[in-house]
Specification:
alpha+beta; 4-stranded antiparallel beta sheet; 15 helices
Length: about 425
């Protein structure tokens, strides 16, 4: 595989974003970088991040600038001149966030002040919200009153950074006035020489499920909500429309990948998918495009906005027939044709657990927990995977049991842990009844 010589300059600090020559918006323009010399290309070569409002994008590959550079280099060499190539830029190692900072954002008492979590509770209930918090590591920040943190935990369990955002607790929409409420944890920490290298939001889930296909959306909120409606996918998010790139999706090699672009962004992601398809098995869903008339072609609408029109539990029951084939009124032909290849990794799963308080009244007796632990330990005909209910699939039962037991043993005094105990009891009943 040959990497591109000219790439968009990776984001490091706000100063690495410039004024767009087309719309004049400051800190929204990304220059192209020559990875061989380490120099930026002329200022007309770059892309405006405001793709839906500006759309300016001039690539050096589009107008032949790259060929001019190659021809000039060959000409100089043919004349016997010493062409002074600068040494390639040595890529620095990525920096990571201290796990103590990560853990401090997951205190159970703080979730009452978390607007996004409150919205999830109103929409899906406390038990389901508790599962989503645990699954995606939704944190709470006091930088703004009611703000949440979407942590970027990579494939190896390393914490790359966290995106702090503010949502409306009633409708789940982002608060954008009087300003756009977005901040990064690594910036707040003020760590000197922090080398930011972002990963896909939810990337840590790839280690917990080795066979399911991957669905990629733009926003973290969309990935979290969509995971309830279509749990057969591992839902990940890029964080923005322009950050769908090979460095981020390289971790998805060998997987089946389906993109769900926001409405009116189908063309942009389809173009990106064509380039990425050389390296990974990737395709693009046109669900929102086909539903655009029904949805009044609202700018910025994403699949979560569409799915929230349906009760997710009723939706799951409708779309799963007895033989597990899709039977939904929402047509997802992509799901039917995806065939999953079995994959196995030898490395251990990352061990990152949310920090929950232990001061509340006990809700689960240790005796009951120990009895469950003994049952699973002595059960001889343990299947590799199982369907827990119409909306839940367990592809790695061993990890499922061990992780749930660890949580309820350590935090059994927390009433929120009842959901973990309930799932283990449900699994036990299924195993006993299974012939």
């Amino acid at each position: 595989m040959n990497d591109y010589r000219f790439i968009l300059e990776p984001y490091k600090t706000p100063s690495s974003r410039h004024t767009c020559p087309n719309c004049g918006k400051k800190r929204e323009f990304t220059y192209y970088l020559d990875t061989q010399t380490g120099e930026l290309l002329p200022p007309q070569y770059g892309m405006c991040n405001r793709r839906d409002k500006c759309g300016y994008h001039l690539s050096p590959y589009k107008d032949g600038y790259n060929k001019i550079i190659y021809q000039q280099e060959r000409k100089d060499i043919s004349k016997g001149a010493k062409y002074n190539f600068k040494k390639p830029v040595i890529k620095k190692k990525a920096s990571f966030i201290d796990t103590k900072v990560f853990q401090s954002s997951l205190r159970q008492d703080d979730y009452e002040q978390n607007n996004f979590v409150n919205f999830l509770c109103k929409t899906f209930g406390e038990e389901t919200t508790s599962l989503l918090i645990s699954k995606y590591f939704i944190g709470t920040s006091n930088f703004w009153n009611g703000a949440c943190i979407f942590w970027q935990v990579d494939f190896h369990g390393k914490i790359r950074t966290g995106k702090i955002m503010l949502y409306n607790s009633d409708n789940g929409k982002r608060v954008k006035t009087p300003k756009s409420y977005i901040m990064w944890v690594h910036k707040l920490l003020g760590v000197e020489s922090f080398e930011l290298e972002q990963c896909l939001f939810g990337e840590h889930l790839l280690r917990e499920n080795l066979t399911s296909p991957v669905a990629i959306v733009e926003s973290e909120k969309t990935a979290i909500i969509s995971s309830l409606y279509f749990p057969e996918f591992i839902w990940l998010a890029t964080g923005s429309i322009n950050t769908l790139s090979f460095p981020k999706v390289n971790v998805l090699k060998g997987r089946k990948v389906l993109l769900f672009p926001d409405i009116n962004a189908y063309g942009i992601w389809n173009e990106k998918a064509e380039k990425l398809s050389e390296f990974i098995n990737i395709s693009v869903s046109n669900l929102l495009e086909t539903k655009s008339k029904e949805l009044d072609n609202i700018n910025g609408l994403d699949i979560a906005d569409f799915l929230l029109r349906f009760n997710y539990k009723e939706h799951c029951q409708q779309r799963l027939s007895e033989d597990n084939k899709v039977s939904s009124s929402i047509s997802f032909k992509e799901i039917e044709r995806l065939k999953i290849d079995n994959q196995y990794l030898s490395q251990p799963l990352p061990k990152i657990n949310a920090q929950f308080p232990q001061k509340l009244e006990a809700k689960s007796s240790l005796k009951e927990i120990l009895e469950l632990e003994t049952f699973f330990k002595n059960f001889k005909k343990m299947p590799k995977s199982i369907k827990l209910d119409v909306c839940s699939f367990v592809n790695d039962i061993s990890h499922f049991i061990n992780s749930h037991l660890l949580i309820i043993k350590n935090y059994h005094t927390n009433p929120k842990m009842k959901a973990y105990l309930t799932r283990l009891l449900k699994l036990k009943d299924i195993l006993i009844q299974k012939p």
